[in-house]
Amino acid sequence: MGHFSEPHICQCLSRIATTRRNSPVTVAGGRQMTGPQFVEAVSRLAHALLRLGLKPGDVVAISAYNSDCYLEWLLAVAFVGGIVAPLNYRWSANEVRLAVLAVSPVMLVTDESCISWYSELHGDSIPSLKWHVSLGFLSSPFSSNVNVSTMGMLDLHQITPPSSFLTTDYVWARDGAVIICFTSGTTGKPKGVAISHSALFIQSMAKIAICGYSENDVYLHTAPLCHIGGLSSAMAMLMAGACHVLIPKFEAKLAIEVIEKQDVTALITVPTMVADLVSFLREKGAWKVKDSVKKILNGGGSLSINLIKEASNFFPRAKILSAYGMTETCSSLTFMTLYDPHFSFSYQPPHFPVGTDLSSVQRPQEVHI
Prior knowledge:
Rossmann fold; about 35% helix; about 375 residues; 2 domains; 16 strands; alpha/beta; five-stranded parallel β-sheet
């Protein structure tokens, strides 16, 4: 058990149950859940994991497309003191094998996203594995020493946790770790980075303060939940009490359709996503609810001036920010406003003629807050 003065990501559940009592907190495909329904789903799953025998500090590896179920698993595993290790479904079988050997999961949770490498894994290749839960299909390559289940086999509807379960019973793993997120491998093979409850809490507060996230937001999950950008923004929106709209993976056409249908107010991007959205909208022409989007946070690289201009044309009421960070720092370290419709501000990079002695250029004065 931890000290209740310490942050725990499941502390967001009481806010969600209150602020979204009569409105959806998740929208995924044809499914919607209100705050109390979502909290109850997390509670039932957490209780099922305890019944299976999951202990504080146990690692649960997840390879799946974005979904409301993925969010439930993140919080339920954290609730009982487990540690989630999201796996990138785009990896090869060898990359997956190296990752799971590095974190020694006792449970593997998968859906159809991992079909390209799933059949090449075997129970003997993951000695630590005790359970496999399939979110979509039951066919399993694992040996008899691994208990294979589907969500239906967990009998979640037969579980009735005590009323105090959600407010008093969550647990911390050793050193407060809650997620092991793998880096993108820019300096070699992907490495697992332990992320704590405190790191996610502080990162969430930073995003809420700087981006202005609130319970009034409708957040579209464009980034995969196996990436620190997607994870940290999801957590910020959970703590803000916002509504989460989930699509399995980013596609410009699908994203625009969902933005129109759900009146999405916030999303995160990388430059290629912005380019895809701009290209699609340029071909599509006028669209109905472009004014709903108020916040776009870009990471993973800088946006060109042309992309900023085109994005601000298509999303004229959106504040566009750029963030820089690393997996090791739990996502964003710095933020820069690229476009702000409230102040008619658009970022313009400094221009220096060829031959300028940059050592003589006066640096901007630092501002301390």
